[in-house]
């Protein structure tokens, strides 16, 4: 379902340049495929798509600009996942979320006659977030809110104030996949983006450093539109290649990852039943050898097609009775260069 590609030193990027194409490694087979796709020289320090993202507490505010203090963020002891602001120099510092500081709330409703509330008491980051959400809107979030705050504040206190910037302690794949496979080297990952090492294990580094990188081009795509099966088939053939076929466990895993992101409980597959010949077939002409039907399926019917739920189980559906998201197979993967 995927093609692994290495972008060499001539077109090296930091991980933010990789975007949604950073290689996702779901198991040891993927890891071997990745290592076999390149030379030892490049293998020793190439980005993969595993990272720990900074995000703002307030929903809908994107993290796209930063004002870190020099040497920050440093993730001391691999435990600093929340951020405070020093008003005196208007710079950010990462720190342990369990420490207690004063904090700044954003008030979209101007309940106190002002857009911002500065606390007099100290709380942990999580408690500060809960307080702001209960009494105001949220912890101050985003560069624009911070700029507005700077024009309204009346002091330059030289002490930390929690702001709404944080990151999850868990690592996540750049395409949103939920695979739990990890292959860390003996040293604990301390930075925020993952890379391969000479021994085939993973290490981490600052995401802004420049390295070669592994890409993958997923050959399936989730369409978040709801259609009956026949319309989904024509859509895939008009815009991509076909409704997706699943011929082995590897295909199953990758289609299942896409199904988890659907807005409907099931997604259409390219699986169809023929009454004339009395068997199931893939519309792309592959034979149905691999199967993952759920228990207690209804009997076969002339108007039945196959769908998948978010857990990866196949189910039989009457075509015209259901409008579902669907998964298309794509044409030849694009090169990453």
UniProtKB/TrEMBL annotation:
<keyword id="KW-1015">Disulfide bond</keyword>
<dbReference type="Pfam" id="PF00059">
    <property type="entry name" value="Lectin_C"/>
</dbReference>
<feature type="domain" description="C-type lectin">
    <location>
        <begin position="111"/>
        <end position="216"/>
    </location>
</feature>
<dbReference type="InterPro" id="IPR016187">
    <property type="entry name" value="CTDL_fold"/>
</dbReference>
<feature type="domain" description="C-type lectin">
    <location>
        <begin position="11"/>
        <end position="106"/>
    </location>
</feature>
<dbReference type="InterPro" id="IPR016186">
    <property type="entry name" value="C-type_lectin-like/link_sf"/>
</dbReference>
<protein>
    <recommendedName>
        <fullName>C-type lectin domain-containing protein</fullName>
    </recommendedName>
</protein>
<feature type="domain" description="C-type lectin">
    <location>
        <begin position="215"/>
        <end position="314"/>
    </location>
</feature>
<dbReference type="InterPro" id="IPR018378">
    <property type="entry name" value="C-type_lectin_CS"/>
</dbReference>
<dbReference type="InterPro" id="IPR001304">
    <property type="entry name" value="C-type_lectin-like"/>
</dbReference>
């Amino acid at each position: 379902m995927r093609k692994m590609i290495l972008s060499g030193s001539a077109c090296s990027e930091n991980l933010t340049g990789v975007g949604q194409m950073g290689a996702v490694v779901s198991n040891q087979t993927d890891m071997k495929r990745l290592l076999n796709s390149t030379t030892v020289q490049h293998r020793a320090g190439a980005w993969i798509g595993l990272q720990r993202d900074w995000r703002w507490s307030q929903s809908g505010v994107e993290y796209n600009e930063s004002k870190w203090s020099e040497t920050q963020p440093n993730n001391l002891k691999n435990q600093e996942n929340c951020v405070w602001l020093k008003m005196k120099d208007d710079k950010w510092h990462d720190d342990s979320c369990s420490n207690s500081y004063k904090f700044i709330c954003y008030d979209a409703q101007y309940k106190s006659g002002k857009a911002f509330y500065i606390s007099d008491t100290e709380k942990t980051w999580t408690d500060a977030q809960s307080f702001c959400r209960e009494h105001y809107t949220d912890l101050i979030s985003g560069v624009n809110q911070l700029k507005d705050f700077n024009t309204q504040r009346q002091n330059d206190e030289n002490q930390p104030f929690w702001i709404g910037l944080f990151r999850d302690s868990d690592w996540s794949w750049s395409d949103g996949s939920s695979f739990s496979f990890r292959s860390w080297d003996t040293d604990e990952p301390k930075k925020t983006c993952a890379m391969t090492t000479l021994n085939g294990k993973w290490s981490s580094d600052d995401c802004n450093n420049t390295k070669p990188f592994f890409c993958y081009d997923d050959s399936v795509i989730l369409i978040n539109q709801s259609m009956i099966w026949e319309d989904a088939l024509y859509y895939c053939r008009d815009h991509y290649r076909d409704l997706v076929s699943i011929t082995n466990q590897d295909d199953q895993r990758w289609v299942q990852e896409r199904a988890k992101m659907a807005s409907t409980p099931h997604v259409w597959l390219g699986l169809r039943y023929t009454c004339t010949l009395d068997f199931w077939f893939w519309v792309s002409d592959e034979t149905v050898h691999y199967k993952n039907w759920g228990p207690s399926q209804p009997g076969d019917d002339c108007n039945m097609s196959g769908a998948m739920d978010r857990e990866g189980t196949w189910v039989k559906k009457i075509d015209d009775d259901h409008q579902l998201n669907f998964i298309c197979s794509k044409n030849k993967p694009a090169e990453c260069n």
